[in-house]
Design a protein that fits this description.
This protein is an alpha+beta fold and about 120 residues long. The protein folds into two domains: about 55 residues, no CATH class; about 60 residues, no CATH class. The chain is built from two helices and five strands, in the order ααβββββ. A three-stranded antiparallel sheet has the order 4-3-5, with no helix packed on it. The protein has a two-stranded antiparallel sheet with strand order 1-2. A hairpin with a 5-residue loop joins strand 1 and strand 2.
Length: about 120
Amino acid sequence: MSTQWTNDEQTRQRLLHEKQRTQERQQLPVAEKPKQRNFWMWIVGGAVAFVLISNFSVTHFQKGDTSYVNRDGDRISIPGQSSAGATARCRNGSYSRSQHRNGTCSQEGGVAEWLR
């Protein structure tokens, strides 16, 4: 008979615990505050991302350009067919004289091979 009592007691404890959890859930505040917080997190996160991205200079070559200014302020000739002084061979077959790996051959499909 003690086994039956133990099972009944466990069931009673489980039901009591579930009832308490249901009451606690009903007392939680309306879910509008987390939504508002998420909205402002997106706004602030977007602003931070914009500031970070705007600090990076992106080089766009125009038709007829022969060089660009890198992040150190040095003028670098754009990738071409000559391998003299090249640091990388681009995927389209041209050669880059970039001094930094970041962004090298970005307009030519990426780096095929680093030469230095």
